[in-house]
Design brief:
358 residues; alpha/beta; Rossmann fold; 7-stranded mixed β-sheet; 5-stranded parallel β-sheet; 14 helices; 14 strands; 46% helix; elongated; disordered N terminus
Length: 358
């Protein structure tokens, strides 16, 4: 009888170990309360659908509300550690992840953020020893892409650079100017304009006199639309380019041919199989849904490859490319995306379409 009992316990233990190997445990930290709860629900949707669809091994998903605050981030980290997760995805706000990372580091648990853009998050990674990876762009990614893409596209063009005097507009415009200079190009006109005016006729006149046929505008959508409208009214041959603020809405339509440096719309580039999975569930794949889905895919693939110990898991996350619903992803030595995700788009018939850049 005792022999039977011991045998039963050994078999039960082996079965338990087998079940553990057949399942990975992923945590989601998201703002499920407060003003950002709608975005947190997008993250929950993406993670839940990914966990349902991924197999071999299957996914167990634990979810914690980080409240987009330092207190909430620390609480979510402790909850997920207590739940026994192997990796945490999510984190929309810098305050939450900054508080969570030291706690997760002590437990040897890596984190993959889908929403925190602050450059310092990964710039401090080596010094702090944080086990953090960033699926979204850095704050400086838009500036880097704008300078790189437009300096290639406008190599033989007479272009100008103007900004609205804000920190965002000035830094964006300065990045384009610096990249142009490094490429041996010089703008024919550089200026700061007064934003939020009913018309920009004076600015368009100065651009015409300078001979500019292209202009980069560091500013918001409304000013770009007004500049474009006034340029058309003055019969100026002027193509305008700006940043991702052009995706917002306004009373004045953007002129056809306006260029935008921005992130892709994830549903447009996602695999058909994944978008159909959301459609079948009558769920919208908007906002942070698909990036969070991709983060769970990455965590799943890394855990399936390695044993779920923090140090080993970080080696897997750092050393390979991952095929995800939003395309191939590889992290660099800082934990940032190896490739800048920003692209160039052209406004055509009330929609932005991809522009190939040599």
């Amino acid at each position: 009888m005792r022999l039977f009992a011991r045998t039963f316990l050994v078999v039960a233990a082996l079965m338990s170990a087998s079940e553990a190997l057949a399942q990975v445990h992923i945590g989601l930290a998201a703002p499920l309360s407060g003003p950002n709860a709608i975005l947190g629900e997008q993250m929950r949707t993406g993670a839940t659908v990914a966990a349902e669809r991924l197999t071999s091994p299957s996914v167990r998903l634990s979810i914690a509300d980080d409240g987009c605050s330092a207190e909430g981030g620390a609480r979510a980290a402790r909850e997920l550690i207590s739940a026994g997760v192997h990796v945490v995805v999510g984190f929309l706000c810098g305050e939450a992840i900054d508080a969570a990372l030291p706690i997760l580091k002590e437990a040897g648990i890596p984190a993959i953020t889908v929403g925190v853009r602050a450059d310092g998050l990964t710039d401090r990674r080596k010094r702090n020893g944080w086990l953090v990876y960033r699926l979204g762009p850095r704050t400086d990614s838009e500036r880097e892409a704008a300078g790189r893409l437009l300096s290639r596209l406008w190599q033989r063009e007479l272009f100008a650079i103007v900004d609205d005097g804000t920190i965002y507009g000035r830094e964006l415009a300065e990045s384009v100017r610096t990249a142009a200079e490094q490429a041996g190009l010089s703008p024919v006109f550089v200026d700061t304009f007064r934003p939020q005016l009913d018309n920009q006729v004076a600015l368009v006149g100065r651009l015409q006199r300078a001979g500019a046929t292209k202009v980069f505008v560091g500013g918001d959508r409304d000013d770009v639309a007004v500049i474009g409208r006034d340029a058309a009214g003055m019969e100026a041959d002027l193509t305008i380019a700006s940043g991702e603020s052009l995706r917002s809405t306004g009373d004045v339509d953007l002129p056809q041919g306006t260029l935008m440096v921005a992130l892709p719309e994830w549903p447009r580039i996602a695999s058909r199989e994944v978008t159909e999975a959301f459609a079948e569930r009558r769920l919208l794949a908007e906002g942070y849904v698909l990036p969070t889905y991709a983060a769970v895919e990455i965590a799943h693939a890394a855990l399936a490859e390695e044993q779920p110990a923090g140090a080993i898991l970080t080696e897997s996350l750092s050393s390979r490319a991952f095929q995800t619903a939003i395309g191939p992803i590889r992290f660099n030595e800082k934990g940032d995306l190896e490739q800048n995700p920003y692209r160039l788009f052209r406004y055509e018939t009330e929609a932005f379409v991809d522009v190939p850049v040599p």
